[in-house]
Amino acid sequence: MRRTGLDETPAEPAGAMDRRRAVGVAAGLLGGVVLGGGAAGVLAQQTAAAPVAPEDASTIPGLPSGALGIRSPFETPALTPIGVTTGASFSPLQSISGTITPSDLHFQRHHNGIAVIDPRRYSLTIHGLVDRPMVFSLEDLRRFPAVTRTCFIECSGNGRSAYRTPKPTMTAQDVDGLTSNSEWTGVPVATLFNEVGVQRTAKWILAEGGDASRLSRSIPLDKMLDDALIAYAQNGEAVRMPNGYPARLLLPGYEGNMNIKWIRRLKAIDQPNMSKDETSKYTDPLPDGTARQFSFIMDAKSIITSPSYPTQLTSHGWWPVTGLAWTGRGKITRVDVSTDGGRSWTQAELVGPVLPMAHTRFRHMWQWDGTPARLMSRAIDETGYVQPTLETFRRVRGAGTDYHFNSVRTWRVEQDGHVFFEA
Which of 227, 204, 228, 226 has the alpha carbon at shortest distance from 216? Predict the structure, then answer.
């Protein structure tokens, strides 16, 4: 017999650790990880047995090293997919710490499926009103001096369901999960334009993707010369395939669909192309019968990610109210938090780093006394723009608006601690 600290158990023979127990633990831990992706993988993970772990990991040899690090099976953040080839997948904002979105949890929006492109055959053509039309391979792009920027990408339709058909059981992922924040690396578009010699008559650039939808958008030349990238890396590795592998256009602060994935062509032109993707879609109808067109920049926005549905506050006392704020017009300078439905506001702490056109983490310590509460956040950016209330947004944009939903979000805390989405 040997003493374990609290009780006594039979001693194992020296050097004869129960290998079957170790193998069983390893199988339980890995079972939900190696099932693969896609619908089949999701289904398998949902039906797999719960992961197991030894009571004391210091008594059992650990798992072997692998070619790739794996996420703990006790942590199960996942994209929420909607549709197939023309669908979307929402990033689990409520499960993310800090501001960087893991590459495999970056939101997805596809217009005709995920393109599969051999990087050895990839090319980017730059032509139109240029002196020297050129075609660049992926290897060519990697030979230019690289730039790294951390910035968010947000689908222009992010928040549509929460605006039109709000439900109390919506998570932060359901409400605003079509935004993600990554570190992107690539070559500045300005560098490539210097190579081809963009002519003075050029004012716009037509950008076209290499997927089956051939999504295209007209982009002001000034933006392309300012901070646009042809990004081939994301969070330190090659861009993930659903996010545009082997290269995508990155336009910090601009609506997501303009950040063309699988970018294959840039054409210098003297006026907007008025393609189907910027006439039949991505315009904003207004209450007076007119419509906003070329509303490229994403306005300031924020969302509380904790506490949020399906959280239940388990005791009275101090709780961190935390979330994300972002703006396409530069830096977030302030986030205010209300715990009484907007009657009073308190300035929250911005948890660094605070970067331009990037997600910013905010935090406010709140003492809950057990009474019902309504939690809200509003973002303010360096231009002085203030995130509008839902009432203001509805009055200005109207019920028929279809893009750029950035009104203040509200979470209702019940007396028993359960948290629900309000609007």
Answer: 204
* Residues 6 or more apart in contact with residue 338 via CB below 8 angstroms: 344, 345, 346, 374, 375, 376, 377, 378
Q: How far apart are CA 380 and CA 336, in angstroms?
A: 8
What would the two tokens of residue 320 be? 């961190």
Q: How much is the CA Rg of the chain, to the nearest whole Å? A: 25
Task: Report the distance separating Cα 392 and Cα 340, nearest Å.
Answer: 19
The whole-angstrom distance between residue 189's C-alpha and the CA centroid of its chain comes to 23
Helix (H, G, I), strand (E, B) or coil at 319: strand
According to DSSP, the β-strands at 263-269 and 123-128 are parallel
Considering only CA atoms, which of 251, 205, 195 is closest in space to residue 226?
251
Q: 292, 309, 324: which is the final residue of a domain?
A: 292
Give the CATH number of the domain where residue 247 resides.
Answer: 3.90.420.10
Number of H helices, E strands in the chain: 8, 26
In this structure, what token pair is assigned to residue 262? Answer: 């699988």
Please state the separation of Cα 325 from the chain's center in Å.
12
**pLDDT (tens digit per residue) in 214-249:** 999 999 999 999 999 999 999 999 999 999 999 999
